[in-house]
């Protein structure tokens, strides 16, 4: 198996001992992204909609570094702090995909890094 670490300055640097993404053969495993602005390395200030858009932009940058886009995504996991935000997160998330949506689960959690309200991880395939 060929394993490659993917890193782009257009997404936040990892805040722990992990990689932004790992490519293993034709699969790309993207670590969970939160609403950190890669230009400032700070959490953005805003509501759940703005936070979700920032997360999706971070994911988009990592996919681009792998030569992919959202059409390559086969699986996502959404971690959400409050299920009351589910509809808003779902609406923003849905704008980034067309038709053949990836498999997905959404899980409410007790807490996320840096006080984030949403974190999304992805698996993509070439």
TrEMBL record:
Q: Which InterPro entries match?
A: RidA, RutC-like_sf, YjgF/YER057c/UK114
Q: Name one Pfam family in it.
A: Ribonuc_L-PSP
What's in the GO CC field?
cytosol
GO MF annotation, one: deaminase activity
- Family under the similarity heading: Belongs to the RutC family.
Q: What is this protein called?
A: 2-iminobutanoate/2-iminopropanoate deaminase
Q: Which organism is it from?
A: Thermoflavifilum thermophilum
